[in-house]
């Protein structure tokens, strides 16, 4: 017994097929953009880890010469711990706007604490040329420069992802799959 399909049924089947293929394509694009965002954060994460090692080593090297400034050294180590914790949360979900905001706050605290330590070191010229301190300061400066580029790459990837999530009708699909907008650094 042959299938007898009316024009309406054929039209509905074709519309359903087009809709299914569009949904698949849109979903794959969003997943691809989310993966690109994760890859961009990996570069930020690498810079944060590199700077974190330098900060910890610098604080350790300064414990003796700047024993009177223990509060500033403890503050920079604590701030580094907060940055590492916030980076771990963002690493788990790079599209989380809340995690990106938390990292931004931790980074601001870190910049403040590191600036205080740098100014303390600059007040002691002998420390600037010290073999125990100078390499860590140089590594911190290099890591900061790289972090600036990595943050920009992440922000650009977040913007592309957010634009895709906000477009109609893709935003309907994004809501269906629980894909929200990404935060910026």
Features:
rod-shaped, 185 residues, mainly alpha, de novo design (two linked rop proteins)
Question: What can you tell me about this protein's structure?
Answer:
The longest helix is centred in the first third of the chain and has 56 residues. The protein is mostly helical and 185 residues long. It has a single domain, classed as de novo design (two linked rop proteins) (Up-down Bundle). Helix content is 81%, strand content 0%.
Q: TL;DR of this structure?
A:
With 185 residues, the chain is mainly alpha-helical.
Our Rg estimate from Cα atoms comes to: 25 Å
Please report which band the strand proportion falls in: under 5%, 5-15%, 15-25%, 25-35%, 35-45% or over 45%. under 5%
- The CATH class assignment is Mainly Alpha
Question: What global shape is seen?
Answer: rod-shaped
List the helices and strands and how they pair.
Blueprint lengths: L6 H56 L7 H23 L4 H26 L2 H4 L5 H33 L3 H7 L9
